[in-house]
Every structure is written in C-alpha cells, then in structure tokens.
Fold this protein.
Amino acid sequence: MSWRNGAFTTSVTGSFSATRQRQSGQIAPALNSNAFLYNLFTPQVTVSYVPDVFGLNRRTVESLQAQEQEVRFQTAAAYTTLTANVVVTAIQVASLQMQIDATRELVDINTNTVNILRYQFDKGYASRIDLAAQESQLAQVAATLPPLLKQLAQAEDLLAVLAGRFPNQAPEEKFDLSSLQLPQELPVSLPAELVSQRPDVLQAEANLHDASAKIGIATANRLPNIVLTANAGSSAAAMDQLFTSGSGFWGLGAEVTAPIFQGGTLLHQQRAAKAAYTQAAEQYRSTVLAAFQNIADTLTALEQDAEALKAAAAAADAAKVTLDLAQRQLQAGYAGYLALLNAEQAYQQGQINLVQAQANRYADTAALFQALGGGWWDRPELLTDKHEK
C-alpha cells in the first residue's frame, strides 16, 4: 500500500513472543499452577486507527505529493536548460569555426595587399602612407584571430562537458550553419498553456501547494488527536495450550491528546506557515511574470534577428556582386589586382557578419523553445502524475 493512501487506513500489526522466566518467591506466582519457573507464549494482533478529524493526515499527504512534484519539475527544468545549452553551444562552435575560416582568408588577402603595396612603394607607384595604412589593417585583422581561436577552444570544452565528457573528449561530429533550418512554425503558446508547460512555473505552483498544505498541518497540530486501538491474542505456558479456552485476551481503547500549553510555539508555527504561503504565492506570481517576460524578450530578439539577418544577407550579396565585377574588370584589364583584393576583403567581412547574424537567430530560436517549456513532456520519465492522468 502506498504512502498516498496508507495514512488514511487502519494499521494492523501482528506479534509473537516466547519467554522463559523465574518469578521471585516473595510475590504471588503469575500462573494458575503457582509455578515460579515457567515459559510464556503470547501471539497477538493489534489494530489501530487514527481518524483524520481535523485533516492532519490529508494535508500531510498533500505536502508530500507537492514536494515530490517540486523535485520532478526541478529535474525537468534542469533537462530543458541542459538541452538548450547544448544546442546554443553547438551553434556557437559552428559559428566560430566559420568566422575563423573567413578571418584567415582575410589575413591572406590583407597579406597579399601589403605585398603588392610594398612592391609598388619600392617602385615608386605607392606612397608610404598607403603602405602603412594597409599594414595597420593587416595587423588589426590578424589580432582578431587569437580571440576567436580561444573562444572556439572554450566552446568545444563546454560542449564536451555538457555532453558528460572530459574537455579533451569533445564530440567529433561537426556541422556548419548552412545545414540547419529554422522551424516553419514556432510553438507560440497561449498564456494558460504556458503556465501548464514551463517546468519552473509548475515547480513554483507545487511549492505554493506545499505551503498551503503546511498551513493545514500547523492548524491540525493545535487541535486534539484521536487514536483508536484494539488488540486480541492468546497467552499460555505451553504451545499446545494456545488458543484453548481461557487463554485468550482482548482489549479496546481510545486515546485523545490535545495541546494545553506550549508557550505559544504551535501558534507561531501556524503564523509562520501562513507567512511562508504568502511568500510562495508571491514567488509563484514572480515566476509567471518572469516567464512572460522571457518569452516577450525572446520574440523581440527573434524579430530583430530577422532584420539583422536580412541586412547582413543584403550586404553579403552586394559584396559578392562587387567581387564579381572586380574579377571581370581585372580579366578585361580595366582594374588592378589591388581593387580585386579590396573586393575580396569586403566579401569575406560580409560573410563573417552573415555568419554572426545566422548564429544569433538560431541561438535565439533555441532560447524560444526553452522559454516555451522546451518539450520536456516528451520524456516519459519526467512526466508527473498531473500529466499522466
């Protein structure tokens, strides 16, 4: 029988004792045979029942059930956070790798540009200012590469840890952002659905239920407690005499205990329970408001990400057109190699900006799924009784 309904039923226990003892000769013998040395065998059954007159058992069970739900929802929230972190970190790894590749190409382009300008400066076709400016630009681009490499190494270590591995055991699977697709329809929920699917909101609700039940427990502890008992059995000096005529015994009893003076302890415990309930109610309200704020912020971020991605894509397309024209002009003899390098540099920078915009949108999409509950209810081991019914 589970603890959920065991508190409301009768308790039955059985016992059997066998003793051998010697009675003092200064007092009357305990047996009818007047023997001072004897065996005594006593099997008996005891039944007890505590009527839940003032709801102590019921509210205690409610409190335990709410505590169980709190832990389950906390587990669901941890699962949702973990999966979101894995997705965002994997996106960051792919984004950093693409930015590193583009930055290295930029370094190569700027190096070629510096070499050309240095040759032109030696021949008197370029000024020292132009050469110094290009060398400064090369140094600036090269300086952005080590921070990217550091971020990539840290992101890969984090991804390995999130996957339950050591940092040197990062997953070998690689992917680029172009292999990802945004969902056709985002699971935007109604307010009532949001409250029933975010694990942090459900955890706060369970905490509120627990606090409410503890008010009932504190109140019932100030009222009388009733216990009904009954026992029956047999007692004999020999095993073959058990359950014979005259060996049986039974008893019925009722016990009522009530607090008379506790120095105000029970009263203050009740007041503390009510104050804890008020606190839990405010925490629940704060959690719900924070949930709506989280979704509103994420939706705003996605809206702005879409605009940023559109602008970055347009800039990358324009840079690609410029690069194509520079290549044609170079082939036709209308432009120099330096113009082509500048066009390639603008194109690579546009690709870096586009990769960053794509990564931001993918990461914020994952954040939206997390804000809407994260789909933890698809894991049977994380379901609560509320969702199983």
